[in-house]
Specification:
The complex is a heterodimer. Chain A is mainly β. Chain A has strands at about 5, 10-15, 20-25, 30-35, 45-50, 55, 65-70, 75-80, 90-95, 105-110, 110-115. The chains are: A mainly beta, B mainly beta.
Chain lengths: ~120, ~110
């Protein structure tokens, strides 16, 4: 499978616990994005990486959220001290951006569905 | 006013009908326009990508962009039950991030 993959697909946790999600982008893609999607809403941007550099974080991303992409390949999103309001689908997307080139669209993974009890 | 708006539906049509899905946006600087299809409990899947005003056709799908009205549309011809999904529009400007509409839920009835 050469698409974007995410693990786990589902996660149930108790309030206050930490959770970590992993995203493996399409191999030649240098940009990786994290989104959060709640029921009846479109994906909301959280953060993105170009290679290993985290270039932008949304104000939605509280200090309980941290993301890494240590070698410019896979990425992890960690949520510390989870709250019930963190329950959502967490989506990863990737694309390849050439310096000075046109913006291209992005390709999504299947998502990780988080339920905080 | 939200940056991107869509009628959430649900929209129910009989099989074979022509479906029209629409988004309006507020920022005239947006240049790139995309439509995604999302099946229940799955990630969004890219359907169409257009740049600037005009029409783009791909099989049964036609994307239309009217930048003067800040209005984009997706038309589905000969709709099939397998087209039943949520359709998301996504819009961006160069150097900025994607902004998604809330999605329109479509049901195509056999």
């Amino acid at each position: 499978d050469t698409g974007v993959s995410q693990d786990p697909r589902h996660k149930i946790t108790k309030r206050g616990q930490n959770v970590t999600f992993r995203c493996d982008p399409i191999s030649e893609h240098n940009r990786l994005y994290w989104y959060r999607q709640t029921l009846g809403q479109g994906p909301e941007f959280l953060t993105y990486f170009q290679n290993e550099a985290q270039l932008e974080k949304s104000r939605l991303l509280s200090d309980r959220f941290s993301a890494e992409r240590p070698k410019g390949s896979f990425s992890t999103l960690e949520i510390q001290r989870t709250e019930q309001g963190d329950s959502a689908m967490y989506l990863c997307a990737s694309n390849f951006l050439l310096a000075g080139g046109p913006q291209e669209t992005q390709y999504f993974g299947p998502g990780t569905r988080l339920l905080v009890l | 006013q939200k940056e991107v708006e869509q009628d959430p539906g649900p929209l129910s049509v009989p099989e074979g009908a022509i479906v029209s899905l629409n988004c309006t946006y507020s920022n005239s600087a947006f240049q790139y326009f995309m439509w995604y299809r999302q099946y229940s409990r799955k990630g969004p899947e890219l359907l169409m990508y257009t740049y600037s005003s005009g029409n783009k056709e791909d099989g049964r799908f036609t994307a239309q962009v009217d930048k003067s009205s800040k209005y984009i549309s997706l038309f589905i011809r000969d709709s099939q039950p397998s087209d039943s999904a949520t359709y998301l529009c996504a819009i961006k400007n160069y150097g900025q991030n994607f902004v998604f509409g809330p999605g329109t839920r479509l049901s195509v009835l056999p």
